Amino acid sequence: MAITDKLITLFDKYGFELSHNVICDIEFNLMHNKYVNKHFAFIVDSKTGKVICHDCNVYYKYSFPISQHAEVKTICKYYSNVRSIPRQKKHLIVVKISKTGCLSNSKCCINCVRFIRNNYENLLLKNIYYSIDEETLGCLNRDDLYRKDFCLSKGYSSRMLTNKKH
Ligand SMILES: [Zn+2]
Q1: Cα–ligand 1 centroid distance for 3 (angstroms)
Q2: Cα 165 to ligand 1 centre (Å)
Q3: Could you tell me the residue range of the domain that residue 70 belongs to?
Q4: Could you tell me the CATH number of the domain that includes residue 80?
Q5: Which among 13, 53, 77, 143 counts the fewest CB atoms within 10 Å?
Q6: How far is the CA of 40 from the centre of ligand 1 (A)?
Q7: What's the pLDDT score for residue 100?
Q8: What is the pTM of this model?
Q9: For 10-49, how does the pLDDT look when each residue is reduced to its tens digit (9 = 90+)?
């Protein structure tokens, strides 16, 4: 099964809808993006399940920040697309596609969680969904973002280790 078909099936299971345009964009990205793991984030309307905004992670070679995670990039893109935030409730969904074309664990790192917490009210977010495996999305509500443990992403932790050596 193609990865985009897996994604459509998974989204459908939870009542979310990936339009043809969004799928084309993901396919284009998967073809041209050379990163090992690809993360995609989606802001969806909680009532209709339709994608309002989406984007993927990016690594910058020479500028700071060195990488921007998909969830932060998508939220920033959404802000730049709208003049005011529509009053509809929204979910944020984050998925990870591994180099072997599998859907795998995409739980947000602590830095993204902080960013999401700071924008939760403003964006009228309801839940955060993240891929666990091919058939499951984990779900976090606002309280979970304060209660649960979140990891530093590998990029951040290796950079911290590098800093310690100097
Ligand atoms: Zn992150």
Answers
A1: 22
A2: 24
A3: 3-165
A4: 3.40.140.10
A5: 143
A6: 11
A7: 86
A8: 0.89
A9: 999 999 999 999 999 999 998 887 777 899 999 999 999 9
